[in-house]
Amino acid sequence: MDLGKVPLFSDLFKETLFPDVQFGMASNPWAQAYAAGGYAMVGVFAIAYALAVGILGYLFNISKGGMRATVLVLAMWAHAEH
Question: Which among 38, 49, 44 is positioned nearest to 26, based on CA atoms?
Answer without folding.
Answer: 38
